[in-house]
Amino acid sequence: MDRRMHLVGKVALVTGGASGMGCGFAEALLKAAAKVCIADINVETGVATESDLRQQYGHENVMFSKCNITSATEFEAVFKRTKEAFGGIDIVVNNAGIGGETDENWEQTVDVNMKGTLRGLRLAMYYLSVEHGGRGGCIVNVASMTGLNPNPLSPVYGCTKAGIIHATRCYVVSEAAKKSNIRLNVLCPAFVDTPMFRRLAAGDATQTIGGDQTAVTAFIERIGVLSTEEVSVALIDILTDETRNGLILRCAKKTGNVYSTLTVQDV
Ligand SMILES: NC(=O)C1=CN([C@@H]2O[C@H](COP(=O)(O)OP(=O)(O)OC[C@H]3O[C@@H](n4cnc5c(N)ncnc54)[C@H](O)[C@@H]3O)[C@@H](O)[C@H]2O)C=CC1
Ligand SMILES: CCCCCC(=O)/C=C/C=C\C=C\C=C\[C@@H](O)[C@@H](O)CCCC(=O)O
């Protein structure tokens, strides 16, 4: 049996879609003939990305919606607008996230990455569920390799990403996911060449603890850096192969793409 989910005409909502990895995901989805809502806190970049993608992939296939994922009202409004504009939602990519480890910004890292992503996950479960007028589909949460392995440079960030992995694990085994045929997977990239990565590589001291840029540079050199196109290929594989459910996909320049199961041995 063909287990490929054709993306033609599918509707995707991508948070943090104005730039970086999210923008790459939006473009890959549009290339596969899906319709995409990019939701992002940055209006200037969001409008510019919308305009660029509309020119390439058709006005009717792309929309930008301003959304701070820490705001319940704004986030809910984006789901509503996407459903109204495109007739439903099939795919949600919870991608928006930030780094920040200082006394001033570490709690914001938790608010955006943990609470914001949980909010997106809860809304996605609601909008995709059959009992609330949805039609099932696929949720991909973007965590990080640092959510699985210790990263001494960004512990708060790493914790939020571990939280995203565990939240996905819990929803995978939920009755709600099974009843509505909702697949959930988590993407764990290592370094990817995006504005966030470039700030880190350029020595933005707010992104790490310790202030040792030599350690950051050595870490990046050891791990390697993926392009947004390479990570987008991984996303499209998760979306199109309907056997992919309850999985972690690790992506790193030197080791490639490796799937493992989200579930661990039960007691
Ligand atoms: N770049 C990297 O090396 C890696 C990044 N990641 C994760 O991938 C995701 C995307 O990261 P990048 O593209 O690198 O970052 P980026 O900073 O280049 O892009 C993130 C996008 O999210 C938006 N955003 C930030 N806060 C938001 C909020 N509160 N509400 C809505 N939108 C918001 C930004 O405006 C931006 O357009 C993040 O969750 C990040 O933690 C994971 C592994 C590696
Ligand atoms: C805001 C900072 C994070 C930037 C984005 C991000 O999520 C990047 C993650 C990249 C790679 C993580 C790799 C983890 C590797 C561990 O297994 C371990 O090898 C780390 C050991 C520390 C070291 O080598 O310095």
From TrEMBL:
SUPFAM superfamilies: NAD(P)-binding Rossmann-fold domains
UniProt keywords, alphabetically: Oxidoreductase
Cited PROSITE patterns: PROKAR_LIPOPROTEIN
Signal peptide: none
Catalytic activity: resolvin D2 + NAD(+) = 7-oxoresolvin D2 + NADH + H(+); 15-oxo-(5S,6R)-dihydroxy-(7E,9E,11Z)-eicosatrienoate + NADH + H(+) = (5S,6R,15S)-trihydroxy-(7E,9E,11Z)-eicosatrienoate + NAD(+); prostaglandin E1 + NAD(+) = 15-oxoprostaglandin E1 + NADH + H(+); resolvin D1 + NAD(+) = 17-oxoresolvin D1 + NADH + H(+)
Pfam families linked to this entry: adh_short
A Gene Ontology cellular-component term: cytoplasm
GO molecular function terms attached to this record: 15-hydroxyicosatetraenoate dehydrogenase activity; 15-hydroxyprostaglandin dehydrogenase (NAD+) activity
Entry EC number(s): 1.1.1.141, 1.1.1.232
Coiled coil: none
Family under the similarity heading: Belongs to the short-chain dehydrogenases/reductases (SDR) family.
Annotated function: Catalyzes the NAD-dependent dehydrogenation (oxidation) of a broad array of hydroxylated polyunsaturated fatty acids (mainly eicosanoids and docosanoids, including prostaglandins, lipoxins and resolvins), yielding their corresponding keto (oxo) metabolites. Decreases the levels of the pro-proliferative prostaglandins such as prostaglandin E2 (whose activity is increased in cancer because of an increase in the expression of cyclooxygenase 2) and generates oxo-fatty acid products that can profoundly influence cell function by abrogating pro-inflammatory cytokine expression.
Protein name: 15-hydroxyprostaglandin dehydrogenase [NAD(+)]
Gene source species: Dreissena polymorpha
